[in-house]
């Protein structure tokens, strides 16, 4: 069997060509192969849509180089304002000779993997799963609010009553909110759902409770909805690839509606400036704003 091409992320077809049989390795695409699990020198080529975070980006590029055979071709790209201007320096720091071009607001770097590389181990270790000091929990660079308690989540945690029945945590991250939900003895099952495999991996380590279930999935997809839940808690994202996307929160609200039983309750925190009130009022029988401070709002919505 020929050595595969590995793909990290989903770059637009107009930006770079990738083989149809490329092995997807992004943790943000459910069902993908873990890049860190690929054997050393096992891939013929790699195409990487580099993530914006510096530590995460360096770790991904280091893993891609590790997985390439000597002489294999790496193509890395990123928007200029989201890490693209630092791609070349990072790759040269690993010992690569880099060709760089720019078009369509992106930087493109190509390199042939040299026989000898340097600095991979340190970059990989910095971007690996670790106990984050600001949380005291397992997390990983690239996960939402990976090394600190997000203030919106903190406000939601302060507002939550003791919940009961079957529930879900949409966009669970490393499991901070879920840990509090599960302090209520009347909760029978809590499903932690996140599109980021790294978040689910961290949550599995952080949430040690037989009532917890873990699901690597996109909550926006209908197959992630049950229609049987008594409650949903969530701090929905509003950025996609670094750009604000208010549609994400609206999609999370729609998913909550599909997932809740009649009378089921959604507890949600959102940035004050995001216009979710109309969607909540249209979808739920009763909507209450339970808290507002520090640029955030907490809603309780009942079907």
Question: Can you put this structure into words, describing what you see?
Answer:
The protein has 303 residues and is an alpha/beta fold. The chain has 2 domains: 122 residues, Rossmann fold; 173 residues, Vaccinia Virus protein VP39 (Rossmann fold, 3-Layer(aba) Sandwich). The chain is 24% helix and 33% strand. The protein contains 8 helices and 17 strands. The strands form 4 sheets. Strands 11-10-9-12-15-17-16 form a 7-stranded mixed β-sheet, sandwiched between helices. It has a 6-stranded mixed β-sheet with strand order 2-1-3-4-6-5. The chain has a two-stranded antiparallel sheet with strand order 7-8. Helix 6 links the parallel strand 10 and strand 11. The protein is elongated. The termini are far apart. The model has no long low-confidence stretch (mean pLDDT 94).
Shape verdict: elongated
Could you state the order of secondary-structure elements as H and E?
EEEHEHEEHEEHEHEHEEEEHEHEE
Taking all Cα atoms into account, the compactness measure Rg is 21 Å
Class from secondary-structure proportions: alpha/beta
Distance between the termini: 54 Å
The DSSP helix count reads 8
Number of domains: 2
Main sheet: strands, sense, barrel: 7 strands, mixed
Strand order of the largest sheet: 11-10-9-12-15-17-16
**CATH topology type of the largest domain:** Rossmann fold
* Name given to the CATH homologous superfamily of the largest domain: Vaccinia Virus protein VP39
| Strand tally | 17
> Beta-strand percentage?
25-35%
Under the CATH scheme, the architecture of the largest domain is 3-Layer(aba) Sandwich
Mean pLDDT: 94
Helix percent band: 10-25%
Q: What is the CATH class of the largest domain?
A: Alpha Beta
- The low-pLDDT segments are none
